[in-house]
């Protein structure tokens, strides 16, 4: 099972990628 810290990091990266895409459009 992933540690809480790893999960938060992945979620953060995902959110950053989504924000970049939204602002890119």
UniProtKB/TrEMBL annotation:
Residue ranges, annotated region (Disordered): 1-25
Biased composition (Polar residues): 1-16
Stated name of the protein: Myozenin 2
Name of encoding gene: MYOZ2
